[in-house]
Amino acid sequence: MSSERPRRGLMFVISSPSGAGKTTLCRRLIEECPGVGLSVSATTRARRPGESDGRDYHFRTREAFEEMIARRDFLEWAQVFDHYYGTPAREVEERLSAGEDVVFDVDWQGARSLKIIRPGDVASVFILPPSIPQLRARLEGRPGADARSVASRLAGAGQDILRWGEYDYAIVNDDLETAFHELKAILTTERARRARAALGGFVDTLLRDAGVQGL
Ligand code: ADP
Ligand code: 5GP
Predict the structure, then answer these.
(1) Is the distance from the beta carbon of residue 110 to the nearest atom of ligand 2 less than 6 Å?
(2) Which of 127, 133, 186, 212 is 20 to 30 Å from 158 at the Cα level?
């Protein structure tokens, strides 16, 4: 199959209120779908048990993060729950240019910024919890949960959920298998849309070989 240039990667943007399960879903997507990688954000928040620097986040001090802002190292950054979070620009650009699809686990502010910066590249998904009591139970059950962080995340959930209508797709993460299948189906659909844009040269060849005149 020929196409003039490698297809540019898809920016697969995923948001949810904290605890609804987007990290779980994104990790699984990356494990099971070849050609998809995760954008590793920088953050000033403390590492949770089981998280590692460079894999889950680039854990940085406030001073180091502010220097990165000043150097314009971020594609977007935002303040969430009193901490900074930001998407490193260079690494992401290199991967997208090489044709890799990149998953972004960002809040509604990040999703909004990425859509404005790269409108043609973004497909966005909002993950909803099945209920607020279940959201609370998931936050409380997460390794390293403390009462203060659970309370602030629950208090912020409504403000996140209010933005669900800004996203291209929505999934209720009740049963994990069902939610994962839905997420994978959206990725497959969006990849087909991108393939359509990159297949022009290939289709021209097919048409020529089929004897269609005037190309
Ligand atoms: P987020 O990234 O949205 O903050 P996580 O992926 O960290 O959320 O999930 C929060 C907790 O809920 C984790 O302990 C995870 O194992 C659990 N969880 C995620 N999805 C489900 C689900 N469908 N059913 C039950 N527990 C879930
Ligand atoms: P957590 O501390 O639970 O890992 O993440 C808290 C919130 O910050 C989540 O809504 C997550 O999506 C968001 N977040 C993580 N990285 C980024 C980022 O680089 N940019 C933005 N805008 N939000 C982020």
Answers:
(1) yes
(2) 186
**Structural domain boundaries enclosing 83:** 11-209
Structure tokens at 101: 């699809």
Q: Whose CA is nearest to atom 26 of ligand 1?
A: 138
What is the rounded CA–CA span in Å between residue 79 and residue 72?
16
- Cα 212 to Cα 135: distance, rounded to the nearest angstrom: 57
Q: State the CATH number of the domain containing residue 63.
A: 3.40.50.300
Residue 214 belongs to a domain: no
Cβ of 124 less than 6 Å from ligand 1: no
Mutate to test the pocket of ligand 2, among 12, 14, 24, 41 (most ligand atoms within 8 A of CB): 41
If one residue of 16, 51, 83, 138 were mutated to test the ligand 1 pocket, choosing by the most ligand atoms within 8 A of its CB, it would be: 138
- For ligand 1, whether the C-beta of 24 sits within 6 Å is yes
Q: Where are the alpha helices (DSSP H) in the chain?
A: 22-32, 62-70, 89-97, 108-117, 132-141, 147-161, 176-198, 200-209
Would residue 159 count as lying in a domain?
yes
Total domains in the fold of the chain:
1
What is the three-class DSSP state of 109?
helix
The one-digit pLDDT tens for each residue of the chain (215 residues) are 444 556 889 999 999 999 999 999 999 999 999 999 999 999 999 998 889 999 999 999 999 999 999 999 999 999 998 899 999 999 999 999 999 999 999 999 999 999 999 988 999 999 999 999 999 999 999 888 889 889 999 999 999 999 999 999 999 999 999 999 999 999 999 999 877 778 888 899 999 999 998 76
Whether 3 maps to a domain, the answer reads no
**Is 24 among the domain residues?**
yes
Q: What is the pTM of this model?
A: 0.92
